[in-house]
Structures are given as C-alpha cells and as structure tokens.
Amino acid sequence: MAQDEHRVYVLRHGTTEWSQTGRHTSRSDIPLTVEGELRARQAGQTLSALRPAGPVVVLASPRQRAQRTATLAGLADVVTEPLLAEWDYGDYESLTTPQIRETVPEWTVWTHPCPGGESAADVTVRADKLLARIADTGSDVVLVGHGHFSRCLIARWLGLPATSGVHFALDPAGITVLGHERGVPQVARSNIPPWQQG
Q1: Taking the model in full, what pTM does it have?
Q2: CA distances (Å), 112 to each of 109, 124, 137, 163, 168, in order?
Q3: Of 6, 69, 73, nearest to 42 (Cα)?
Q4: The pLDDT value given to residue 196
Q5: Residues catalogued as catalytic
C-alpha cells in the first residue's frame, strides 16, 4: 500500500457515566452506558462506510470501555495495546475540571501538570512509540482509545506538540481519519459522529 493510501482511523470509545459528567477517567475501568453501547455499534457502521474493504490492523486500549467499543463496532482480531491507554491523570482521577480548579485555578490537562500522573512529555513519548509501531503497517489501522490521548496522537501525527491536541475535538464514539497527501501527514476527516438512523 502506498503511503498516500495508508489510513489510520482513530475511534474514541462510547460514552461512560464518567465521560457524561466530565469526570477524568484514565486508570479507572468504567463501563459503557447503554447509550454508549448503541453509539459504539453505530460507529462500526460509520467505519464500514468510511473504510474500503481490505485488511486492517485493529489496536485497542486495555480498558473495558475501549475493548467493548471495538467489539460492538464489529472489529475483528483486536490486539490489546497498552500504549493506547488514556493520559494518566494521577491525583485528578475521577475529578471534574471545576473540582480541580477549586485548588488550581485555570487548570487544564493541556497546560498544567497532573500530580502523580503523566506529563505532556510522557504522553508525547507514548504517542510517538505507537505511531512508530504502526508506521510500516501494510494496511489500514484502527486505533480504539480515549479522548485526550487520541487527540495527542492526532497532534503528533501532524508533527505538532502533544498539547496541540486541544485543537482537535473527538467526541465519544467519534472517528478521526489520518492520512497523507503526497507524503505530508494530514487529517483527512475529523470527529465524525457515529451514524444514526432516522
């Protein structure tokens, strides 16, 4: 497959109770909600419409919300990839941004540290390792993961700092398609919602 034909499909897991309420979720293994399961199935239909038939490598975060999304999306031969885990929020796990800002005004994951968790530099190293791993794949790749880390991956695909992920939205069960134009990395499609009938 020529480089310009190579595509990486970044699929965020479906909705969980914590993602609905804005609680930071990295290590906690929170299941999908009923709606999250529905959206994961619909994301599978969206992927089928976007991706031409042919071989594909599917990697998913170890967390059940990503694994379940991959299954419900109808993806086969899923390989668990620890590098796809969410940004580790450390002491801020389970807290919302307003709760964190009670002690750290103006806090965002993009601009401030996560005590006891990963730094932007840590996440950059992890994203770069994953991108290097899939660089020579002879087929399309589907990456099933999480919000913040997936947005960092998109930024690193483009050669931007991981913290530039702030500029790329990726909603639950949303899909972003990464590719190339004449060897130059590009975002071919961004934050495509899961297909919904009706």
Answers
A1: 0.95
A2: 6, 15, 35, 10, 18
A3: 73
A4: 67
A5: 13, 86
